Amino acid sequence: MTPTSLELLKKYSVPGPRYTSYPTAPYFHTGFGESDWAETLAVPAADRGLSLYVHIPFCDSLCYYCGCNMVVTRDYGKAAVYLAALEHEMSRTAALVDPTRKVRQLHWGGGTPTYLNPDDIRKLMAMMRKYFTLTEDAEISCEVDPRELTREHLEALRESGFNRVSFGVQDMDPDVQQAVNRIQSEWLIQQVLDWSRELGFSSINLDLIVGLPKQTIESFTRTLERVAVWAPDRLAVFGYAHVPWMKKHQKLIKEADLPDFTTRLALQQRVNEFLGAAGYVNIGLDHFARPEDELVRAQQNKTLWRNFQGYTTHKDCDILAFGASSISQTADVYMQNEKSPKRYQERIAATGFAVERGLKLTRDDQIRRDAITRVMCDLELDFATFGNEWSIVFSDYFADALSALRPLAEDGLVDITTGKVNVTRVGRLFLRNIGMCFDRYLKEATRNEQPRYSKTA
Ligand code: SF4
């Protein structure tokens, strides 16, 4: 890493959102309630498909780095109660949504969806098919924890129509695995990959994390070498967000074991070089895919979109999310459910909904969300095209953003000389900082009111 790029990284390593939504989740408010959500669901939107998400919050054991909404429990009885609540929520929701709208994408996340036993996997998917109609070519994906997984779990997923799986690999080094309390051998990962391929899943994603305790360039390079042999279709390489003030269990990670700033950045650079050389294309912030993958094609065609599940090819879908803490999204509304599974179940039993908070987007929110999404997905923003789409004069409407972008242009992160904002090669490492220039909420909040975000680099 050159001193110049290190200086830039130090300068731009500031707390900032990942922009899986805009406005970001801290701005959702409790003034948005069940009647608002019922009204939103009933809005006719025949031209928009559906993307369903189900959150299964249970896990067998705690990974110390975890940033998800989850409950560690060995009491499987909780799953049956939770599944009943999910069915109640789906029936209440489906009763309000236009039945001709089809599901183009379906995803189970968590927690650990494969905490469910094979019979309950079949039961949950049958439940979803009872209330919603899936297209023939729907993308149906599930996050899978290789530990505790059996071939029967994968068979149940495949028989239920799942065609994609995503495995949490994170880091294969034994010291790192020990430090984060997630032990999984190479043999184990190899076995679940073999099963998945034998069973005919058409796309396999592996998740990795940089910035974990005890990680070194050498040890993580060994993980990358292993991963290259496994040859997944996609990879998501997340930066570990150490936020022990929000996630108390992260205090179990010794701060002295975390890689220092320079190592962390060198790790990120190693990932980009290694995966690039292995034939993967970097999609924006943290995703990599093979050149023939739909994500790469969508980026080339400028139809890539970003939502709570990361990068997606399904821009024109409303996300209906079920389960504790899950976030739904329509063209102009975000809605988040109660986070605690217990309270979620109580609220569902009472009314069929468990709305904790939400937000109705203003036109300005929608325009700024589109601008942030365009730079994070397309890596460019054409003033004239964007202005025509939203009936605005770009340079007037975004005078604030353009002046905020000026120092980034001087540092070579963006080029704004040709009626476009173009993200440069160096700027790809700073997409969150570039997005922040368009964020009205960041600008208006005083320092003390500012939500606490993880660092951008
Ligand atoms: S399995 Fe996933 S959700 Fe569960 S504790 Fe580990 S990281 Fe968190």
Structural class: alpha/beta
Instruction: Give the beta-strand count.
Output: 19
Mean pLDDT: 93
Strand content: 15-25%
The CATH architecture category of the largest domain equals Alpha-Beta Barrel
Count of folded domains: 2
Q: What is the distance, rounded to the nearest whole angstrom, between the alpha carbons of the first and last residues?
A: 14 Å
Summary?
This protein has helices at 3-12, 34-42, 77-94, 118-131, 151-159, 174-180, 186-199, 217-230, 261-277, 294-301, 341-351, 363-377, 383-390, 394-397, 399-410, 431-436, 440-444, and strands spanning 49-56, 58-59, 71-72, 102-110, 133-144, 164-170, 203-210, 234-239, 281-283, 287-289, 305-307, 310-312, 317-322, 327-329, 333-337, 355-360, 380-382, 414-415, 420-423.
Describe this structure as you would to a colleague:
The chain is α/β, with parallel strands linked by helices. It folds into two domains: 16-360, TIM Barrel (Alpha-Beta Barrel), CATH 3.20.20; 363-444, Arc Repressor Mutant, subunit A (Orthogonal Bundle). 40% of the residues lie in helices and 21% in strands. It has 17 helices and 19 strands. The strands form five sheets. The protein has a nine-stranded mixed beta sheet, with helices on both faces. It is globular and about 60 Å long. The two termini are 14 Å apart. The chain binds iron/sulfur cluster (SF4). The site of iron/sulfur cluster has 11 residues, from loops.
